[in-house]
Design brief:
With 234 residues, the chain is mainly alpha-helical. It is 77% helix and 0% strand.
Length: 234
């Protein structure tokens, strides 16, 4: 049993490593922004533990700086993170098997954790799939907290220009996408995602295209499901 658990943890660490490097940089960027807004490392830890929303946390720093009202914060956070609704639908049944881990698995399903979860459909026979997905969420959360702390401390101690550090997460998504496409037998699903994103980018603009592109991608893939199932059989 212990050997099985160690192999599960090792599997989860291996799968989460790409996120580690992205979160160290992006979490650091958040910590730096928070420090520059006048909040120390304790606030960086608290916000990263309790909120843990990536882009939502960057938005939260702006709210803190502008003393935005609670309704404004709640509404904007809902809009920014509403895409997570689509992520959760994919893993409800699997996560329910986690028992007491279920609430945390929902809480920790960020963009990057979702990407890692979708990067593999099966696990080795000696790995517990549900626990592996739980551990991936745990490790990714820890990576983000560490990044936030490093950034907050760096903002205090190191006079360095951190311009462009947030691009590391874009690079992470590109690498995960390429890895998924190389591993997938059906490249059509990835093509649908790209076309949907480009179309919505043109129509809605860079600030508003993400949620519409997710809706369009889900709608198209749902409509194409019979054809995609036939291609998988072949």
């Amino acid at each position: 049993m212990k050997d099985n658990r160690m192999k599960t943890i090792k599997f989860a660490i291996t799968k989460s490593l790409p996120v580690l490097f992205g979160y160290l940089f992006l979490g650091s960027a958040f910590g730096i922004m928070l420090y520059e807004a006048g909040y120390n490392v304790l606030f960086a830890v608290l916000i990263s533990v309790v909120i843990y929303a990536g882009s939502g946390q960057f938005l939260f720093v702006s709210f803190l700086s502008s003393a935005a009202s609670l309704p404004t914060v709640a509404l904007m956070t809902l809009f920014v993170n509403s895409r997570h609704i689509f992520y959760g639908l994919s893993y409800v049944e699997i996560f329910k098997k986690g028992g007491w881990r279920y609430p945390f698995m929902i809480f920790s399903l960020t963009d990057e954790t979702y990407s890692v979860n979708t990067s593999f459909q099966t696990v080795p026979s000696d790995v517990d799939e549900v626990r592996a997905r739980y551990y991936i969420g745990v490790f990714n959360h820890i990576y983000w907290i560490i990044g936030s702390v490093v950034g907050s401390l760096a903002g205090q101690l190191i006079p360095v220009d951190f311009t462009g550090i947030d691009f590391s997460m874009t690079a992470l998504f590109v690498v995960i996408y390429i890895d998924q496409m190389l591993a997938s037998k059906n490249k059509l699903t990835g093509l649908v995602g790209i076309i949907s994103a480009l179309l919505c980018l043109i129509i809605f603009g860079a600030d508003n295209f993400l949620l519409p592109s997710l809706i369009l991608t889900v709608a198209l893939l749902s409509a194409m499901k019979p054809m995609l199932d036939k291609r998988e059989v072949k």
